[in-house]
Amino acid sequence: MLPVKIIVGLGNPGREYAETRHNVGFMVLDLLASHFGVEWKSDKARKAELAAGPGVLLVKPQTYMNASGESVGPLMRYYKWEPEQVFVVYDDISFPVGAMRLRAGGSAGGHNGMKSLIAHLGTEKFPRLRVGISAPGQRQMISHVLGKFAPDERPLLTEALARAAAATLMTLSLGFDAAANQFNIKKEKKKKEKPAPAEANAEAEEAAASEQSSLES
Question: Which domain holds residue 53?
Fold first, then answer.
């Protein structure tokens, strides 16, 4: 897989959406910008807020969620980067608050922001990080995703955002596969397997601890 050059966080612009479930992508990108010590700059021509990190461009589309691809697609083509170099962070109702998962590609899964990205990038084959916001339950979908997190969810959210930022940083430093192996939740095996030698994952574990520690400090 080619190195990531654009990190996109999905969300809706405007103060009224700042703390809503649909904006966890923006929240993770804000953590990354703070980590890199860079400021967001509005680029109306590209319909986005941009921040230049070390060797990577941070992007928060300002098109509203359903048209996110209108910002990201032209940016990717302007810099002559490939879709697999676009790393997307977004909310997912399939996971509870506090959970997340890295994936190398796949369908939009009903997420309108991802539908727009797939349409404008021309492929489903680009890496992404899905951050859980929980299922709506009895609530209507729109009111759920545009609603704010409950007080008892906030600690789980804070931890998940830090882990998501750490996973993204590991993707930049060690590659997508290393980050997925380190951060994705493993399903329990029916048969007990022998543990891998400690040194096999030493580099990834050390990097993960370092990335998360730097984000929490």
Answer: 6-216
Q: Which residue, among 22, 204, 29, has the nearest Cα to 113 in the 3D structure?
A: 22
CATH code at position 136? 3.40.50.1470
Task: Give the model's pLDDT for residue 205.
Answer: 52
Q: Is 35 a catalytic residue?
A: no
SS3 124: coil
- Catalytic residue, candidates 22, 111, 120, 144: 22
Indicate the number of domains in the chain: 1
CB atoms within 10 A of CB 195: 7
Is residue 58 helix, strand or coil?
strand
Q: Which residue in 124, 6, 125 sits closest to 61, CA to CA?
A: 6
pTM of the model: 0.86
Total number of residues shown for the chain? 217
